[in-house]
């Protein structure tokens, strides 16, 4: 069968499906109504699903390359997908387009103990990698909250999470990639090396590009020695300002917390109810507390950890904490697990959107105070928590009316950028924030990014609605 797009012949869906099935096999290609509805969306709260025309499940990079070549030849928009846990509609396909699901590319290819690296396919989940690395006494330290999330998805959004204050985000923990370009060419960047100064750093360019420049098919990750002993301290404060004053002091102390989180009272209550979490905080203390600080420490030696915890509690007392609660074992794990489920608690509470603005950490108090004022002015609410150690604020937005919510979000994003921050710290722009990005970001920077996109993907088939919105108008047959 020969389909010649250059003569203006539009192939039928059946013909395209036949071409794609020839690449991945009939069992791994679904078309039309046979595509399950889960592949039409991710976990973004503010978008409607888009039904793809095709769902392909490749097994290796060569199949991914053949799929992309076919899609590019007929201007079929391509969306690559992990487990669909994203919060910005980055995995929502173009209506009638092709979803390349990487769920079958889920092998851990190597745990290299000598070099402290793992080599994995993009469909490997954080939970699966955690199991394998723990057996080797090592760990992958990027934990954005959802353990069913895939490593490939984390690379796409430059995911962060609670441990970023000590270990950094995905960008600091990925040292090499294999990726398929829009041309179908397969490239490798970086590798099992700690640094490179040879030409442009394509690894870092592809991380966080949300599938708009290439499709990642293999990832080389840094691993760290697992520290056997850890403890979590929960400290209620009467005011948010006290929390924000405490953070730089804790960081400057040299205690090196691997988790440093802020939760407002509403969020702690919500996640406590959602997870049936009992922390033993007396009602009198809970009534006075407006904000909570969660600090987790780790050490390879138990006695040293005890000493660090004692020093931390003394410091928190000096900084005005109402009490300090040292949580160990099951209680600590439950609190951290509950914090990681904050999105689901917000969703269950009826949030209309979830955002993740990042600002310099010294500006967090001002950002949160002014955000609260902005929300009240719109008759709305913005409540949440954040990675206070690095200034990443996660807010559940409660504002049902879409037009009013859009104005509210524009003001919040504008405030974050005014304070030296950015629209998204780790969720990515996806498709939910592209309009705000276009309105608020420096047009010179956006123009440069567009030219990079056009260089990598001149036909505009790779996630064409991501980052820039509907800038690249390609059509699906």
Automatic annotation (TrEMBL):
A molecular function (GO) term: oxidoreductase activity
PROSITE patterns the UniProt entry points to: FAD_PCMH
Listed cofactors: FAD
InterPro entries documented for this protein: FAD-bd_oxidored_4_C, FAD-bd_PCMH, FAD-bd_PCMH-like_sf, FAD-bd_PCMH_sub2, FAD-linked_Oxase-like_C, FAD-linked_OxidoTrans_Type4, Oxid_FAD_bind_N, Vanillyl_alc_oxidase_C-sub2
SUPFAM superfamilies: FAD-binding/transporter-associated domain-like (SSF56176), FAD-linked oxidases, C-terminal domain (SSF55103)
Classification via Gene3D superfamilies: 3.30.465.10, 3.30.70.2740, Vanillyl-alcohol Oxidase, Chain A, domain 4 (1.10.45.10)
Protein name as annotated: FAD-binding protein
Organism: Mycolicibacterium iranicum (Mycobacterium iranicum)
């Amino acid at each position: 069968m020969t389909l010649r797009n250059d003569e203006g012949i539009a192939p039928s869906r059946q013909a395209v499906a036949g071409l794609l099935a020839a690449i991945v096999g009939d069992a791994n290609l679904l078309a039309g109504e046979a595509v399950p509805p889960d592949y039409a969306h991710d976990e973004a709260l503010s978008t409607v699903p888009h039904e793809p025309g095709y769902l392909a499940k490749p097994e290796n990079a060569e199949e991914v390359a053949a799929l992309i070549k076919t899609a590019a030849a007929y201007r079929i928009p391509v969306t690559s997908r992990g487990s669909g846990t994203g919060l910005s509609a980055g995995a929502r396909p173009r209506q009638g387009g092709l979803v390349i699901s990487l769920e079958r590319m889920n092998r851990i290819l190597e745990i290299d103990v000598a070099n402290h690296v793992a080599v994995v396919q993009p469909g490997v989940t954080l939970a699966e990698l955690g199991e394998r690395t723990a057996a080797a006494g090592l760990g992958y330290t990027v934990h954005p909250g959802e353990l069913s999330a895939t490593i490939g998805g984390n690379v796409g959004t430059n995911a962060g999470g609670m441990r970023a204050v000590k270990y950094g985000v995905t960008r600091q923990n990925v040292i090499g990639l294999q990726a398929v370009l829009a041309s179908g060419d397969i490239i490798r960047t970086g590798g099992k090396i700690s640094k490179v100064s040879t030409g442009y750093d394509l690894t870092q360019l592809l991380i966080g590009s949300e599938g708009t420049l290439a499709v990642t098919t293999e990832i080389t990750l840094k691993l760290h020695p697992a520290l056997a002993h850890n403890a979590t301290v929960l400290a209620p404060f009467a005011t948010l300002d006290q929390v924000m004053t405490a953070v730089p002091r804790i960081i400057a102390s040299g205690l090196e917390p691997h988790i440093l989180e802020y939760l407002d009272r509403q969020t702690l209550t919500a996640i406590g109810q959602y997870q049936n979490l009992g922390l033993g905080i007396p009602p009198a203390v809970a009534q006075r507390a407006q904000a909570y600080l969660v600090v987790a420490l780790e050490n390879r030696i138990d006695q040293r950890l005890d000493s660090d915890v004692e020093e931390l509690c003394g410091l928190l007392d000096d900084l005005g904490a109402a009490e300090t609660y040292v949580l160990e074992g099951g209680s600590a794990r439950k609190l951290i697990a509950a914090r990681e489920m904050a999105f689901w608690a917000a969703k269950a509470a009826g949030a209309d959107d979830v955002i993740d603005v990042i600002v310099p950490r010294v500006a967090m108090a001002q950002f949160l105070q002014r955000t609260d004022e902005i929300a009240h002015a719109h008759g709305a609410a913005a409540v949440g928590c954040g990675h206070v150690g690095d200034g990443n604020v996660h807010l559940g937005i409660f504002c049902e009316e879409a037009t009013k919510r859009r104005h509210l979000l524009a003001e919040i994003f504008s405030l974050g950028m005014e304070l030296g921050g950015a629209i998204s710290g780790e969720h990515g722009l996806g498709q939910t924030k592209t309009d705000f990005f276009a309105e608020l970001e420096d047009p010179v920077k956006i123009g440069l990014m567009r030219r990079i996109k056009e260089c990598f993907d001149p036909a505009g088939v790779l996630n064409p609605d991501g980052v820039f919105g509907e800038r690249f108008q390609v059509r699906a047959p």
